[in-house]
Amino acid sequence: MAEEQWCSIPSEDVFSLFNSHPDGLSREEAEKRLARDGYNEVESKKEHGPVYRFLRQFASPLIYLLLIAAAITFFLELYVDTIVILFVVLANAVIGFIQEGKAQHALESLSKLLVPEARVLRGGMSMVLQSRELVVGDIVLLEAGDRVPADMRLFYTKNLRADESILTGESVPVEKSTDAIATGCASFGDQKNISFAGTLISQGQGRGIVVATGSATQIGRISEFIRESKEISTPLLRKMAQMSVVLSVVIVVVAALTLGIGLLRGLETIEIFMASVSLAVAAIPEGLPAVITISMAIGVNRMAARNTIIRTVPAVETLGSATVICTDKTGTLTKNQMTVTQVYAAGKLYEVTGAGYDPVGEFLLNGAQVDPLADRTLTETLKAGVLCNDASFRGEDNIDGDPTEGALLISGLKAGKFYLPRVDIVPFEPEERYMATLHENEDGSKVIYVKGSPEKILQLCVSQFDGESTGPLDIQGVTQASEQMASDALRVLGMAYRQVPAELDRIEPEDVKDLVFLGLQGMMDPPRDGVTEAVQQCKTAGIRVIMITGDHLSTAYAIATKIGIETEGGLSGKDIELMSDEQLRQYLRSVSVFARTSPEDKLRIVKLLKGMGEVVAVTGDGINDAPALKTADIGISMGITGTEVAKEASNVVLADDNFSSIVAAIEEGRDVYSKIQKILLWTLPTNGGQGLSIVVAVLMGLTLPLVPLQVLWLNTVTAVGLGVPITMEPKERGILRRPPRPPKEPILTRLIKRRIVFVSLLIVAGAYFNFFMKLDPSGENLDAARTVALNTIMFFQIFFLFNSKSLYDYVYRDLFSNKFMLLGIAIVLFLQLLITYEPTMNSVFSTAPILPADWLNILLVSSTVFFLIEFEKYLQKKGYIS
Predict the structure, then answer these.
(1) Residue of 24, 308, 567, 594 with fewest CB within 10 Å of its CB?
(2) What is the DSSP string of 130-180?
(3) Contacts of 856 by beta carbon, 8 Å cutoff, 6+ apart
């Protein structure tokens, strides 16, 4: 039987259901049940060891191809080539191993929440047991400060409150009761008579009968969800894997065809085999994995500077591809600090500015600032909230105590300081719905201040203070004001007082009567600064924001409306449970507010959104969020309020728990993806050009324009000197004004593919043109001709690098904006001069010095790529090509 059913059963019936008793099980019966059911523990998930995780880094078609190339070059005694290739492969594997996220410690974090000990009644005697020894039917004693050891149905409570934020994400302690609940037990927040394992008792005392232990508890069920949630590959990893497969197949097929055609043409076996190896080495972008990793690592650092900590490197890009953000409300969209925003006193409604626990704000009446101390009724209403209060202000936006009382304390401090010595107290009781305190005035007289629900306060009042004297109680006016505040999703409390004799030193509930009504204070957890603007930025960027919260639907809808989340109404967890997947899928197209949700609801919403083709980012801070965080394309946990379970299940941690930081991270993510596309746009045509030049030589029976070592030199020098600086390129303008790229869009778009083919052909044509312009008919200056071809390809890459600063926009304005790129070009040019004119380098790389006229020819030919690509951008902007 589930908690949803236990909460609707009277507590006395639960005893009979479990053959238990208020004095507890007998020791014999408890031992019998323990022997039958075993110790209650949440199972751990067996993880692969570090060796497996390291070897997994080599599971890529591109890496396989590089390893084959390394083996071939080794057997051909091309040891320099072998060492360079293996270094690239090993470096990539080490980086991947170190950065591999999702360390799979979520279940270990869950186990830390299982209480080591619990106070239990057995046979009428109180004893302390290991919580793992608890059995269903045990009676557990609870008091303030205890962490609940198992799910239990409460049958006795005294002012009992529990902090269930690890399950619900809501910070306000929940009042617990013993009454059976006939309906509405679907969500955690509705199950007032159930205490959940892992939650914390913040106030009062209670007793409960254990109804679930270990894996059967809510925490245990969540651990099952985590265990069942598969590791989700990011969109970039999926696209890179697909591209690697295609690239590898193309390279192998072309190399094999080249070998076959060469043999058919009667070429020497060794010569044509070397040509085929040169082709493979030329076409494989050895530095590509490392440069992409560097690009993402730079993105990680930039995000950290904007309060976003990336736990898994590929997540840095995935954020940029998000089409939907499913976000918590409390602490993410809101400050998680209850704040009084309205005060009703003597028929007037005052607005209170300021947010959170900062005692700075103004009081406005009809939009005009007023002195709160000039209106005695307002002053007394604020004073009552401060004095009838157990919270304390610690400074620097911090309070000790209940968030609701903290809000009342701060609203009073915005007006001034109120203090009267407290003499006695009637503590808050859920059944009575009020709290009262007795104070001594400066003249020795005594006064009782009372706060509570508006309905209860009105019942206790007989008159109303108007600022000068007491008069008739305006029940209708107060009720209307209370209902209006509640309709704005405010939590409303009434304030009242009563003058009592000076000799009164103690107060009882019987003394709380014949009160004078003062006013109402309405409070809410206000939106964070900048959240409204961040939601608007999401709209501009084409990203939909969906709120999924454990709070009440009316509160969630009011906050959503206030910050600009577009939604056609809202759904509760109970509504979701009654829907089929198809029905919920239809609602997901227009509804963006979901309240009173369970972990199953959140997980189900995420799965359906992903099934609809969305790239889903999910935020969360509680244990209840862990399954959805792990299932989402990108899981985002809270760094301040987040549980360790949530952090371990996520890819990203927000250091400041602020939704606005997510938008900043999305901007960085889009920039990372844009740079990865630029890296591919620049790398693949240059590698393609080198490979194609060898294919042309074999097909046409021409002399190879480059030898294998020259090809490896080109790939290595340009990958570091020219490829890495792309990662330092400044962000393009308006990156957040673009819509998200379609989830199914390949990383190699039609534009990139077209440019790859065009630039590859241009490089081949230019390299062969200069090669044959330099080559003597006798072939005696073959090394010099190859040096010209080598430098021609290098300068093609340099000029095309400038084109690649933007896929779509002209680069004239920002031609020299990247200082790292200019430095990289300078280093590459210096190295090219070395390989061209230094004798040792000449002998190693089969190069030779060339004439100044050759350099002029190289520049004239290679610069054509820059002007042609910029012209292509012009044609694209004009709509002549797509």
Answers:
(1) 567
(2) EGGG--TT-EEEEETTPBP-SEEEEEEEEEEEEE-HHHH---SPEE-----
(3) none
| Ramachandran class of 878: left when φ > 0, alpha when ψ lies in -120 to 50, beta otherwise | alpha
pTM: 0.70
Question: What is the Cα–Cα distance from 42 to 19, expressed in whole angstroms?
Answer: 25
- As a whole number, mean pLDDT of residues 657-674 equals 86
Residues 77 and 747: their CA atoms lie apart, in Å, by 37
What does the mean pLDDT of the chain come to? 84
Give the pLDDT of residue 659. 85
Long-range CB pairs of 805-809 (<8 Å, 24+ gap) are 805/678, 805/729, 806/678, 806/732, 807/674, 807/677, 807/678, 807/681, 807/751, 807/752, 808/751, 808/873, 808/876, 808/877, 809/732, 809/873
Cα–Cα distance, 273 to 78 (Å, whole number):
13
Q: CB–CB of 323/336 below 8 Å?
A: no
pLDDT, position 113: 44
Element (H, E) at 254: helix 235-264
What local confidence, expressed as pLDDT, does residue 98 receive? 58
d(C-alpha 872, C-alpha 510), whole Å = 87
Q: Which two tokens stand for residue 10?
A: 């009277």
Q: What is the mean pLDDT of residues 697-724?
A: 82
pLDDT at 48: 54
User: Phi, psi (5° rounding) for residue 440?
Assistant: -105, 125
* Residue 328 bears catalytic tag: yes
- Which residue in 81, 138, 328, 671 is the catalytic one? 328
CA–CA separation, 498 vs 517, rounded Å? 9
DSSP state of 801: H
pLDDT-derived band at 768, boundaries 50, 70, 90: very high
3-state secondary structure of 415: coil
